[in-house]
Amino acid sequence: MDTFDLIIIGGGPSGYAAAMRGIDYGKRVCLIERDKIGGAGVYDGALSSKTLWEVANRVASINDAIVQEGRDPYEISWESVQKTVNEAKLERKLQYSMHLKLLQDTTTNQLLWVERGQASFVSAHEVKIVHEGGEKIIWGEHIILATGSRPRHLPHYEIDERSILTSDGIEHIEDYPESLVIVGAGVIGCEYATIFANLGKTKVYLIDRQSRILPGEDEDISVLVAKNLESRGVTIHHNATLERMEVVDGEVEYELSYPDTTRQTIRVKKALLSIGRVPNVEGLNLEAIGVTLTDRGLIEVDDTQTKIPHIYAVGDVSGGISLVNMGEIEARHAVEKIFGNIQNRLNIDNVCTIMFLQPEVALVGMNEQQCVEKNIPIKVVKIDFSLIARAIAMRKTQGFFKIIVTNDEEMRILGMRACGEHASTAIQGVGLLIKMNQPIEVLSELIHPHPSIVEGIQECVRMLLNKSIFKSNVFRDKLACYSLVDGVKTNLETGIQCVI
Ligand SMILES: Cc1cc2nc3c(=O)[nH]c(=O)nc-3n(C[C@H](O)[C@H](O)[C@H](O)COP(=O)(O)OP(=O)(O)OC[C@H]3O[C@@H](n4cnc5c(N)ncnc54)[C@H](O)[C@@H]3O)c2cc1C
Ligand SMILES: NC(=O)c1ccc[n+]([C@@H]2O[C@H](COP(=O)([O-])OP(=O)(O)OC[C@H]3O[C@@H](n4cnc5c(N)ncnc54)[C@H](O)[C@@H]3O)[C@@H](O)[C@H]2O)c1
Q1: Taking the model in full, what pTM does it have?
Q2: Which residue positions are annotated as catalytic (predicted)?
Q3: What does the alpha-carbon distance between residue 306 and residue 409 come to, in Å, rounded to a whole number?
Q4: Pocket of ligand 1 (CB under 6 A)
Q5: Which domains does the chain have, with CATH numbers?
Q6: What ipTM was reported for this prediction?
Q7: Which DSSP letter does residue 293 get?
Q8: 353 closest CA partner among 424, 453, 430
Q9: Ligand-binding site membership of 50 (annotated)
């Protein structure tokens, strides 16, 4: 039987990162994947959907410009869109396969083995791999589970991935659907609503069971994103409960009910279900070896370690935040715990995230509503993009920066929300500040390039220190600085208070 220092089950971004960190330590590593290396980090997930978003964004930008000049809108065929997405996936696939092939070079000190097939536990140290050609059992000193997740289905609805689809099927449709209903107004739902609205060939309906989309984020973000979706023709059904959805004559008919007891029935060409994801734990034989699950069916971990000390779980399968960067960092942390003997727990205070919407939204740390829920006294400072020279030059002045700090002398940064052009790059500096536990003065004194979007962040920080260039008592609709303490909002410029 082949023996390894580390076996990793699942070759998505988490498993891949774990394997690479394992060979850094000079260990014998076996990575097992049943389908495609890269997982949802590449296919029907992060890379493919972001390529789609980029194409759609470009189409919308071109159209915004040419339609203003009275010219006909630019059109791109679905075939061309898919070709671009396929090119992106292929490029990544080739990088991974070349990388893995060279790392498995048997003429040098081979540390990595890649096995194809479905893995399951035979015992706490033995893993069976089943593939078309047969099966084998290997032995591992340590094992990392990185089996990821898949789209959540709704009971009683048949997902055929042709008429009623999930994110696994939507990129494989044959042409633009004339109309599309999206169930679930979370990240995936809002990203695909943005993509199809921007491509301009599909009438999009978005079912939001709450009163506003992206319920986990502050209202200012939900309102701006919803406004932009609606301006591109998206119908958002707020406070709507999906009562029925079925395929009728090759189309999708759905029925909604509202709190005022009214009902509505609509027919569309296709439906996309984006109501969260579930962990891939089935068939691993976890019960037999004592690895436990949480109430939500995720693998139960303490700082990436399961109840069985030599078995770890990372990425989507163990919950936390379902992101590529989170899976990778958890994987690296697990390997460092195993072979590097590190003692610290994983700190995720500075995880930066982007939501690919219109405009793009970047996040780090806590938002206002989370601070209020936890009753943390805070100061909030906001600047509208229309006051930032670079945004003016780009003629893209929609958006804002919002920084949240502790309501004390120290004004430690708790979080930031960036909503607008370059948001995804702007977030990084503040993420670093949180990680380094540095005071806001560092940003206030740093000489920023000009004109740059990040000057807006500097202006926010300077506002908190009472030394901004633009004064909030003049630009009252574009600058805001307030505290939120025990349910009372106080405008720090005027002293005016209101109860929230
Ligand atoms: C539409 C969409 C868009 C997204 N966009 C972003 C984004 O913009 N940014 C971001 O950070 N994240 C994004 N995500 C989330 C991100 O893709 C996931 O968080 C990430 O892929 C999780 O990585 P993972 O390795 O834990 O799991 P996965 O990527 O799911 O990989 C798990 C792998 O394990 C394999 N596997 C499962 N069971 C077994 C078994 N028994 N034996 C062998 N192999 C097995 C699977 O085949 C799979 O390849 C997106 C997700 C989706 C669906
Ligand atoms: N840009 C990114 O970083 C990115 C992009 C896509 C996905 N992801 C990851 O993928 C994960 C899954 O995304 P998601 O959007 O599927 O999940 P989500 O949890 O973000 O959103 C699901 C939404 O569906 C709603 N919902 C649930 N059941 C419903 C029902 N029966 N009817 C109507 N609405 C219902 C929920 O209220 C919620 O708003 C995310 O948590 C995220 O971590 C990240």
Answers
A1: 0.96
A2: 450 (proton acceptor)
A3: 41
A4: 9-15, 32-36, 39-41, 45-46, 49-50, 118-119, 146-149, 167, 188, 280, 284, 315-316, 322-325, 327
A5: 2-43+84-150+278-339 (3.50.50.60), 164-275 (3.50.50.60), 359-499 (3.30.390.30)
A6: 0.98
A7: B
A8: 424
A9: yes
